Amino acid sequence: MSDHSVAHGTLVVERELPHPVARVFAAWADPVQKAKWFGDRGDNPPSVFEFRPGGRESSTGATPDGRTYRFDVLYNDIVPENRILYSYDMHVDGRKISVSLAAIEFSPSPRGTKLKATEYGLFLDGLDTLDQRREGIVSLVDNLSRYLDGE
After folding, report:
1. What is the tens place of the pLDDT at every residue in 112-141?
2. CA separation (Å) from 126 to 12, 64, 123?
3. What CATH number is attached to the domain comprising 127?
């Protein structure tokens, strides 16, 4: 009997941001800007950032309890000011905890931008869950919002 398992899950997080689509998209596309809001503390510059179809991104970070996270991305499709499609692996302390497919969609709204983040995740061996991932994505969108509001 194997201790290995895969749990499947889909989540959607939507938010209206009072900033133009071009501004919100740029915060994802520019490594200097993204480093200011992406991650738990907003100070997590990627070690690799190739923002183009077929490009890669990789970043690592540590939590206060000493756990080390690694985020490895393959950009599958990018349509400026419209969508970013990517697949990614998450690792904690050197162990792969999930494999995901994500879509970040940007559209004009009366307030500025409607941001929609959709993710289909495969959560491995009980090391990650859909609820934990939803919490992480909500936190990232909150960080993005604070970053844009603080300019």
Report:
1. 999 999 999 999 999 999 999 999 999 999
2. 21, 22, 7
3. 3.30.530.20
CA angle at 52 for the pair 47 and 55, rounded to the nearest 5°: 50
Residue 89 lies in a domain: yes
Cα(4)–Cα(130) distance, integer angstroms: 17
Number of domains in the chain: 1
Question: What does the alpha-carbon distance between residue 8 and residue 46 come to, in Å, rounded to a whole number?
Answer: 27
Q: What residue numbers bound the domain in which 144 lies?
A: 6-149
105 in the Ramachandran plot: left (φ > 0), alpha (ψ -120 to 50) or beta? beta
CA atoms within 13 A on the CB side of 23: 14
Q: Look at residue 1 and tell me if it is in a domain.
A: no
CA–CA distance, 28 with 51 (Å, rounded to integer): 9
Task: Name residues whose C-beta falls within 8 Å of residue 94's C-beta, 6 or more positions apart in sequence.
Answer: 68
